[in-house]
Amino acid sequence: MNVRSPKSTPPSAALRKKSTTSKSTPKPIPKPTPKPPPKPNRCPCSPGDSTMQIVLASGNRGKLAELQSTLAPLGVELIAQGTLGVPEAEEPHHTFLENALAKARHASAHSGLPAIADDAGLCVDAFGGQPGVTTADYATRFGYPKSDANNVRALLEQMQGVEDRRASMVCTLVALRSATDPEPLVATGRVTGLITRTPVGDQGFGFDPVMFLPAFGKTFAELPTDVKNAHSHRGQAARTMLALIRERWLPGLP
Length: 254
Ligand SMILES: O=c1[nH]c(=O)c2ncn([C@@H]3O[C@H](COP(=O)(O)OP(=O)(O)OP(=O)(O)O)[C@@H](O)[C@H]3O)c2[nH]1
Ligand SMILES: [Mg+2]
Hints:
CATH architecture: Alpha-Beta Complex
Largest sheet: 7 strands, mixed
Number of helices: 6
Radius of gyration: 26 Å
Strand content: 15-25%
Number of strands: 7
Shape: elongated
Mean pLDDT: 87
Structural class: alpha/beta
Distance between the termini: 28 Å
Bound molecules: the ligand O=c1[nH]c(=O)c2ncn([C@@H]3O[C@H](COP(=O)(O)OP(=O)(O)OP(=O)(O)O)[C@@H](O)[C@H]3O)c2[nH]1, magnesium ion
Strand order of the largest sheet: 2-1-3-4-5-6-7
Low-confidence stretches: 1-23, 37-48
Oligomer: single chain
Number of domains: 1
CATH class: Alpha Beta
């Protein structure tokens, strides 16, 4: 709520005011400020709120930008967990689904808000689907510090001499109304491509410069963000999640 302290009138102004009144000039009648029409209640989770707020349970700036863009038509306020001081969650599980659920619970418990989490990863066919849920730390397995650039470097080194370059990027999104929500919303997306032999392109993040999409003849890192979003694993999952949230959390709204 905005509580404004009344402006204190400086003594000189107070004097001027007095002298004006003493001239018996008729005081203008102040116009009543029209009240804004009440906003529709958009949040079944906190009935008093007019605009639903959802915490995005991720510290990855690339993911946040893509999710905020694809989920924008929901008309809800999507707040990055970092802005609310939510610390990074543990991701100890063997599946994307369990890790996404853990991240969403964690962010919801810390913020008191509904949460959407994203667990993603690269599944390389020649490696039996690895690195999978451990994708973010891939480089550290080979002695490099954790970073996107080192992940790419480690992957290209590990794939030297590997002819089968097929790999998928997968994304699982989980949304919860509260940390104890018994009915999480779940959406998944998957895109298959070929791992290049050198990085190409400077858009996106993660493995985008080595994820070649035969349908485009380009890597994800060569595609503008809106084109990546329209075809990516995360874009697919986010559009499904958007529909689920509209249907289950915001019924009756356009
Ligand atoms: O080429 C890519 N295109 C993508 O679209 C993409 N999305 C995620 N990733 C990478 O896969 C791992 C996920 O790990 P992850 O789900 O644990 O995320 P994260 O740790 O970065 O953030 P958080 O959401 O957990 O806070 C991280 O290395 C990400 O960089 C991508 N790589
Ligand atoms: Mg992570």
